[in-house]
């Protein structure tokens, strides 16, 4: 399961970042931020070739020593980033894909909330719940 | 990527150059020492050859050698096989000393959505490193666009490559030749040459030294005779040279003449100093060799600094050279010597005096010498060796052909692997003996490489690589791979692509197999540079990042930084990756002790993260920047960085924030200690500037005992736009009243409390000696508590009254602003403005708290409240505040003093187009009050002021006016939103009530006279002019004695209150107005506000209606009037819910009218009746006159209340008067102006005739039980009867019904006719006058004719046509029956016209046939207005029957008649 899940706005500021509480949050912030470069690269590359028939899932952005970073970008250029522990080999591409899809659905629900003003950080229990479900369940989760 | 000043080819080429060793005799050393240089150093600037050399390859092809550089070094025999820690330190210093210059122009690189700033110092800062090649590179540097340069990296790289230890597996750093230098002053120079030659041989071949390494066994020895021109003996030198030529051949020796310059000429001529650029490096290298360890940080950045650095080590080298007497180890230098060498005086010794004895000619000589040596000695030597090696190889392979052609075959494969003879296996593979045949090919390749024959070099390297790989000699193989790749890259025509994988393999082998990071690093540096030149930035970055490791922080840092630069140079710049790697680099830099570089890296990374929402990362960077800046003694920057962390909305945890705060306070404190003159700004807590409120005046005292102070304005009240408008309106009324009805143009409403919504465009006026309270909103954004102490306002004061002349001359300070900034720091009290200090102000985590800060101005002038000043400390879990007070603990808790400015932005302007397009803000002068001279100040207290009243209840209260200031005040007035709520009484009618409130208890508020109750008594009347109650507008003058209140004086006045007519809670606002007796002050008047809330509960409801009486005029008592009216008064107790109220008594009914008055109570009998209380009152027209009101009192009890006096009359006028004048005016104007419209005309006439202007005052008493005490409450209710026939009530109709009315989209069709017919029926009043009983002797005469008078009176003011029809037309059977018995005789139809208000009597005759009771009211009267058509005709028939009794008269006595009637 993921160790960090982030939603990044079109303008590349974070809308939502959650990471496993046991680990250094700052590190994930840096990782997610740095991954945006790759996301942008991929978007520009895809945009040229296929036009509107774009695959939202961007696949593995880059592997680091400890983590694998996966990206997903919605049509409105909102980016989802999921960081997975490198040691976790059980996760297949398809599972990551479905995680992103779930995340996207939940995100859409958040956006549909008339009380949510777009551009603000996401504060939604439902979204939190979805994200928590995808996160690594650490021992400390009470 | 940082741009280099060299091209890649040049860089790679210069990384591997022929090495030449130098051996000097002592005497020669002495000669060169005159120039502050040793021989190697002397040659260094001239080591690059400007002309082309030529060499022939084994195939006799001529190869051009261009731009060759040789490296001349003293022979150093220290065993530095590995990269020593000292070398690392030197590298560290090189990097440290090369810093970007501050304040240079910055370069902006736009990458993605970020603009990155780099300080551009490419030319200036890196000048020392390359200006020797500047000529050759000038065109390159001119054409190149520098984006960002990292000279420290280049310096590092150059030093690194030069300090590479010579390795076993390659020959590149091995000495090819040796210069033997002997001075011509030696007694026997030739012997010296021999000695040196033997020395060289010993070093190379004795096996004592592993270092230095030599390329070829028979090293080229080049004999140099050094001749000092200043010492003369040129012939001798020439002759010795001749001798040498004989001995060594003219290609193997050289006579170098130098030092031709005398010291005396030194001043005249400025000779360029080419050494200065090299000596830093030189110095460092010598230091490496000397293993000099501790050096102070090199702070200087210019060449000057480096020159002085180099100076310090020169004596050292001289000493060692002389002490050892030969080329012995310099490492043997003892520490004392080193210390001595770095004495201050040696440091201070003449800088920049290199080559002092050399002329430009000498420079040329040296240059020629190098050229001669290279072309005549070195290159032929290399050429020879290449041939030899080639021959050897060819023979060894048993091939007849040259290697050059053979290599092609070898590439094809099928090469027989050659095994070394029992080489020992080591971790990094094989180790060949130096003369192993496998190494020969490598040696040849290296030679070819050095003379730029890259094609041949490549093939040799390639061959060697295969050999080594097959031998599993990994180190050798890696070396061969590396060089193969480099030579492939350097091949001019580029016949094959650059084999990047060779490099990767080489790096990997070096690093992983051989564990030789130094070699791996060299390889990576080369490879990265080459990749960059091929625009493979991504590969270069990967390569560089891979090279970062734990063993060297400096290298990791530099490489990470380069990698970061690679990311922004990519086609799609990866700005975030750049930033991230910059952070990593910064981290490594700081670990390596390179704080400046670390700081620079973080700052550059910050540009990417800044203000993009990545707060956690931003905080981290800011924190690091802060720390680094602080350690680098840039505390200002540190403070700025820390401030960023604290002011941004932080996502950090509380403990983290606490740490940040402590760190910030610590840094801040050190900054403050640095400069005492001006308090710096503090970031915490946040001040919500626009929420700042300013209050002028004293804070109100609360009610003291019985007294209830006027509420006025306080800071606790919320601002309300409507309320403010209401107060302003009241004040306007007051000012108008004070200025004879005109509001002056300069009028501005008094604003006691200023906030963001008030009008702050003008400077507010404050009064001297009255406090100014500023409420500042602090917000603590942190999750840790803050402790503020000694909080006070910061102000600037400009005194007023200083005349211009004074200002200009001596009293400069009078016009100048006085500020309390110094006073606060020094603790001096100020006599201009007293500043109150809040000693402690604690703020909880994330708390928003208000602080009220007070100033007391003492003199007039302009005050500017600038900001707040306070001590800030981190409150540690609540008890921090306690610790603060004691001095000792205050040290432990970090407390800093600082200020924060209050900058208030006015509201955004939205008037003009520009305003709308831009964001412009108006002025806000809230904090800039003008202090005016002292003004009188009044306090108002209320005594016995009720909070709850019954509707209409009259209560007496007292009001006390108190002048609490030092000035007299006058012109007291009051305005209210409910002027009918209270009265001070009118002067003429004020009853003599006790003035003091204590004696007035249980005393009726009314003025009474005792009368006995007489049922049916006639009302007593009083005639009162309305002018006696003249204060009819909302403004009332307060009748205080003398009109002025002297200082300290206070006066009490009675005040009558009447409960509002409507139930509910009423907010009643009073605005008291007063002026100073002295005129011409800026503040013309002052006001005092008071707001009370009165809860009114229901009492009685009075309903009254009037109808025409049918009593004929002559029946009325007063003959003057034209007629009477019946008034019915119904009183209903609607106070059902109140348990306290026992019962109501109606004690008096009074009337007040200009034309009418109550006359008599007809039936006051059952006054104890239930809910309804009917009255029958006669009413008559009085002779009131236009402005006089007649008050008629009909008392039902024992005492009469004089309704015309205070308070009854007052409240009557207050309650009823306002609508009346308006109504009268309205009708009069209507009649005059709307003549044309007939319908309205009629209605007017009709209305007028129905008009009744009578006001009924019902005075009641209520018995109330409250707290087991019976109270008697009094009250009065007013009913205004406007029209006859309409019911009027004391309760105003509810408004809600109107509000809730449905919207009608179609205009309602008016029904004027119906309305008119109803009204017209009142036009003519008919009265039948006849005898009640009439006795007629029917026996004698059968017809009885009774005269009946019909009185017609025209009520209207218009002529009316009247038609009277006496004929019976009734169809009802009963009336037929009745009426048939009598008939009208004589004229039965009349047509008359009645003039306005005319009364006409018609005499009719009724004829009766028999005795009985008859209804005479059968005449039908039709009336119409004279001018109108028939449509207006209406029946005027009165409904009531008019009965007449007709008796039959007989001869018999009366009693029989009565009997008959039964």
TrEMBL record, chain A:
Main location: cytoplasm
Domain of life: Eukaryota
Gene Ontology cellular-component terms listed: perinuclear region of cytoplasm
rRNA processing listed as a keyword: no
Keywords: ER-Golgi transport, Transport
Record's subcellular location: Cytoplasm, Perinuclear region
Pfam families named among the record's database cross-references: Sedlin_N
Similarity section: Belongs to the TRAPP small subunits family. Sedlin subfamily.
Protein name: Trafficking protein particle complex subunit 2-like protein
From TrEMBL, chain B:
Domain of life of the native organism: Eukaryota
Biased composition, class Polar residues, residue ranges: 300-312, 1225-1240
Disordered: annotated span: 287-324, 1219-1240
TPPC8 C-terminal Ig-like domain sequence ranges: 1323-1425
TPPC8 second Ig-like domain segment(s): 951-1088
GO cellular component: TRAPPIII protein complex
Transmembrane segments annotated in the record for this chain: none
Ranges of residues in domain TPPC8 first Ig-like: 716-950
Pfam families (alphabetical): Ig_TPPC8_1st (PF24545), Ig_TPPC8_2nd (PF24544), Ig_TPPC8_3rd (PF24546), Ig_TPPC8_C (PF24542), TRAPPC-Trs85 (PF12739)
Boundaries of every TPPC8 third Ig-like domain copy: 1091-1279
InterPro entries: Ig_TPPC8_1st, Ig_TPPC8_2nd, Ig_TPPC8_3rd, Ig_TPPC8_C, TPR-like_helical_dom_sf, TRAPP_III_complex_Trs85
PANTHER family given in the database record: TRAFFICKING PROTEIN PARTICLE COMPLEX SUBUNIT 8 (PTHR12975:SF6), TRANSPORT PROTEIN TRAPP (PTHR12975)
Protein name: Trafficking protein particle complex subunit 8
Organism from which the protein derives: Cyclopterus lumpus
Record lineage: Eukaryota, Metazoa, Chordata, Craniata, Vertebrata
């Amino acid at each position: 399961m993921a160790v960090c899940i982030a939603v990044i706005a079109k303008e590349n500021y974070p809308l939502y970042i959650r990471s496993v509480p046991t680990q250094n949050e700052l590190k994930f912030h840096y990782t997610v931020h740095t991954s945006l470069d790759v996301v942008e690269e991929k978007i520009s590359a895809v945009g040229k070739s296929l036009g509107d028939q774009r695959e939202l899932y961007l696949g593995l952005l880059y592997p680091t020593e400890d983590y694998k970073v996966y990206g997903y970008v919605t049509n409105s250029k909102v980016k989802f980033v999921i960081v997975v522990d490198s040691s976790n080999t059980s996760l297949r591409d398809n599972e990551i894909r479905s995680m992103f899809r779930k995340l996207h659905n939940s995100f859409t629900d958040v956006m549909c909330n008339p009380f949510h003003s777009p551009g603000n950080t996401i504060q939604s229990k439902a979204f939190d719940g979805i994200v928590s479900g995808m996160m690594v369940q650490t021992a400390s989760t009470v | 990527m940082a741009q280099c000043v060299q091209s890649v080819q040049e860089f790679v080429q210069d990384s591997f150059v022929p090495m030449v060793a130098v051996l000097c005799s002592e005497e020669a050393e002495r000669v060169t020492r005159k120039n502050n240089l040793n021989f190697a150093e002397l040659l260094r600037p001239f080591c690059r050859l400007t002309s082309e050399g030529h060499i022939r390859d084994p195939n006799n092809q001529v190869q051009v050698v261009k731009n060759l550089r040789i490296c001349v070094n003293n022979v150093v025999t220290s065993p530095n096989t590995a990269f020593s820690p000292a070398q690392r330190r030197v590298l560290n210093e090189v990097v440290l000393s090369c810093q970007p210059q501050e304040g240079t122009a910055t370069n902006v690189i736009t990458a993605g959505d970020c603009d990155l700033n780099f300080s551009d110092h490419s030319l200036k800062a890196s000048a020392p490193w390359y200006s020797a090649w500047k000529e050759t590179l000038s065109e390159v540097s001119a054409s190149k666009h520098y984006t960002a340069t990292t000279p420290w990296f280049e310096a590092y790289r150059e030093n690194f490559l030069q300090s590479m230890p010579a390795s076993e597996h390659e020959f590149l750093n091995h000495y090819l030749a040796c210069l033997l230098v002997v001075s011509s002053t030696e007694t026997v120079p030739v012997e010296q040459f021999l000695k040196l030659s033997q020395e060289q041989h010993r070093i190379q071949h004795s096996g004592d030294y592993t270092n230095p390494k030599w390329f070829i066994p028979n090293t080229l020895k080049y004999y140099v005779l050094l001749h000092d021109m200043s010492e003369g003996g040129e012939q001798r030198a020439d002759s010795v040279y001749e001798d040498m030529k004989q001995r060594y051949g003219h290609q193997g020796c050289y006579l170098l003449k130098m030092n031709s310059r005398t010291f005396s000429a030194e001043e005249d001529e400025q000779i360029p100093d080419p050494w200065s650029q090299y000596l830093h490096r030189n110095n460092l290298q010598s230091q490496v060799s000397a293993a000099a360890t501790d050096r102070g940080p090199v702070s200087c950045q210019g060449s000057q600094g480096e020159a002085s650095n180099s100076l310090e080590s020169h004596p050292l080298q001289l000493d060692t050279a002389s002490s050892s007497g030969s080329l012995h180890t310099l490492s043997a230098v003892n520490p004392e010597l080193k210390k001595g060498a770095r004495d201050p005086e040696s440091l201070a010794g003449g800088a920049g005096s290199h080559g002092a004895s050399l002329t430009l000619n000498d420079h040329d000589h040296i240059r020629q010498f190098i050229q001669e040596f290279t072309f005549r000695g070195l290159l032929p030597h290399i050429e020879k060796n290449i041939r030899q090696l080639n021959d050897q190889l060819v023979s060894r392979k048993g091939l007849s052909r040259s290697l050059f052609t053979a290599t092609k075959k070898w590439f094809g494969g099928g090469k027989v692997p050659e095994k070394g003879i029992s080489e020992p296996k080591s971790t990094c593979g094989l180790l060949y003996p130096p003369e192993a045949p496998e190494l020969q090919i490598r040696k040849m390749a290296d030679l070819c490489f050095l003379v730029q024959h890259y094609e041949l070099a490549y093939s040799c390297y390639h061959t060697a690589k295969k050999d080594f790989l097959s031998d599993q000699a990994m180190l050798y193989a890696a070396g061969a791979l590396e060089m193969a790749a480099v030579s492939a890259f350097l091949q001019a025509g580029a016949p094959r692509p650059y084999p990047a994988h060779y490099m990767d393999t080489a790096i990997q082998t070096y690093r992983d197999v051989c564990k030789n990071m130094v070699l791996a690093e060299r390889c990576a540096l080369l490879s990265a540079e080459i990749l960059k030149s091929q625009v493979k930035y991504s590969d270069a970055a990967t390569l560089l990042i891979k090279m970062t490791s734990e063993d060297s922080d400096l290298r990791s840092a530099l490489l990470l930084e380069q990698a970061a630069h690679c990311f922004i140079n990519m086609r799609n710049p990866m700005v975030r990756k750049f930033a991230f790697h910059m952070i990593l680099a910064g981290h490594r830099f700081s670990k390596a002790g390179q704080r400046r570089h670390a700081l620079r890296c973080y700052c550059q990374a910050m540009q990417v993260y800044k203000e993009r929402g990545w707060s956690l990362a931003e905080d981290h960077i800011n924190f690091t920047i802060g720390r680094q800046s602080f350690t680098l003694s840039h505390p200002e920057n540190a403070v700025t960085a820390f401030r960023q962390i604290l002011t941004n909305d932080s996502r950090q945890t509380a403990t983290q924030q606490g740490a940040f705060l402590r760190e910030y306070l610590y840094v801040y404190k050190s900054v403050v200690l640095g400069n005492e003159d001006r308090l710096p700004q503090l970031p915490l807590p946040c001040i919500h500037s626009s929420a700042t409120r300013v209050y002028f005046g004293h804070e109100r005292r609360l009610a003291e005992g019985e007294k209830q102070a006027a509420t006025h304005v306080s800071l606790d009240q919320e601002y309300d736009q409507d309320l403010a408008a209401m107060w302003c309106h009241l004040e306007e009324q007051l000012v108008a009243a004070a200025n004879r009805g005109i509001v002056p143009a300069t009028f501005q409403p008094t604003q006691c409390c200023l906030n963001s919504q008030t009008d702050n465009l003008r400077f507010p006026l404050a009064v001297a000696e009255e406090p100014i309270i500023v409420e500042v909103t602090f917000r603590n954004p942190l999750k840790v508590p803050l402790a503020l102490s000694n909080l006070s306002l910061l102000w600037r004061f400009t005194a007023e009254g200083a005349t211009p002349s004074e200002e200009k001359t001596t009293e400069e300070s009078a016009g100048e602003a006085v500020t309390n900034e110094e006073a606060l720091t020094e603790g001096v009290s100020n006599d201009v403005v007293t500043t109150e200090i809040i000693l402690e102000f604690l703020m909880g985590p994330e708390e928003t708290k208000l602080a009220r800060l007070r100033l007391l101005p003492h003199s007039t002038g302009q005050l500017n409240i600038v900001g707040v000043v306070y001590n800030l400390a981190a409150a540690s879990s609540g008890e921090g505040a306690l610790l603060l007070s004691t001095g000792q603990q205050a040290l432990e808790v970090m407390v800093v003093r600082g200020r924060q400015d209050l900058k208030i932005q006015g509201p955004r302007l939205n008037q003009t187009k520009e305003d709308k397009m831009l964001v412009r803000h108006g002025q806000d002068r809230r904090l800039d009050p003008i202090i005016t001279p002292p003004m009188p100040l009044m306090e108002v207290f209320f005594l016995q002021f009720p909070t709850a009243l019954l509707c209409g209840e009259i209560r007496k209260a007292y009001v006390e006016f108190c002048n609490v200031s030092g000035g007299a005040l006058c012109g007291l007035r009051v305005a209210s939103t409910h002027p009918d709520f209270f009265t001070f009484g009118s002067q003429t009618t004020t009853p003599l009530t006790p003035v003091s409130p204590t004696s007035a208890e249980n005393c009726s508020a009314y003025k009474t006279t005792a009368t006995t109750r007489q049922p049916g008594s006639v009302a007593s009347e009083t005639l009162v002019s309305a002018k006696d109650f003249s204060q009819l507008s909302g403004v009332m003058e307060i009748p205080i004695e003398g009109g002025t209140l002297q200082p300290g004086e206070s006066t009490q006045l009675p005040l009558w209150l009447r409960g509002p007519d409507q139930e509910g809670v009423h907010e009643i606002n009073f605005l008291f107005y007063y002026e100073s007796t002295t005129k011409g002050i800026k503040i013309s008047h002052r006001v005092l506000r008071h707001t009370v809330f009165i809860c009114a509960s229901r009492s009685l409801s009075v309903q009254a209606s009037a109808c025409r009486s049918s009593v004929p005029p002559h029946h009325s008592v007063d003959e003057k009037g034209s007629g009477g009216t019946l008034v019915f008064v119904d009183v209903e107790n609607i106070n059902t819910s109140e348990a306290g109220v026992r019962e109501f008594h109606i004690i008096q009914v009074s009337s007040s009218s200009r034309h009418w008055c109550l006359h008599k109570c007809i039936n006051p009998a059952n006054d104890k009746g239930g809910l309804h209380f009917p009255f029958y009152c006669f009413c008559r027209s009085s002779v009131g006159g236009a402005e006089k009101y007649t008050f008629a009192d009909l008392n039902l009890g024992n005492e009469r209340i004089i309704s015309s006096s205070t308070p009854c009359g007052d409240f009557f006028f207050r309650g009823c008067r306002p609508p009346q004048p308006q109504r009268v005016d309205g009708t009069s104007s209507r009649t005059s102006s709307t003549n044309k419209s007939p319908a309205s005309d009629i209605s007017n006439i009709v209305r007028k005739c129905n008009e009744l202007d009578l006001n009924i005052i019902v005075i009641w008493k209520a018995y109330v039980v409250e707290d087991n005490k019976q109270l008697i409450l009094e009250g009065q209710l007013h009913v205004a009867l406007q029209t006859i026939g309409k019911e009027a009530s004391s309760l105003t109709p509810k408004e809600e019904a109107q509000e809730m009315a449905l919207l009608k989209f179609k205009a309602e069709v008016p029904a004027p006719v119906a309305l008119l017919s109803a009204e017209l029926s009142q036009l003519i009043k008919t009265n039948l006058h006849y005898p009640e009983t009439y006795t007629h002797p029917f026996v004698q005469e059968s017809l009885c004719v009774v005269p009946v008078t019909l009185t017609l009176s025209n009520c209207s003011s218009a002529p009316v046509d009247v038609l009277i029809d006496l004929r019976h037309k009734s169809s009802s059977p009963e009336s037929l029956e009745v009426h048939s018995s009598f008939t009208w005789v004589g004229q039965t139809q009349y047509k008359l016209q009645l003039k306005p208000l005319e009364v006409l009597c018609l005499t009719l005759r009724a004829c009766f046939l028999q005795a009985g009771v008859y209804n005479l009211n059968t005449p039908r009267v039709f009336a119409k207005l004279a001018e109108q058509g028939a449509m207006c005709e209406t029946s005027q028939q009165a409904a009531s029957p008019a009965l007449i009794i007709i008796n039959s008269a007989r001869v018999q006595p009366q009693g029989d008649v009565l009997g008959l009637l039964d």
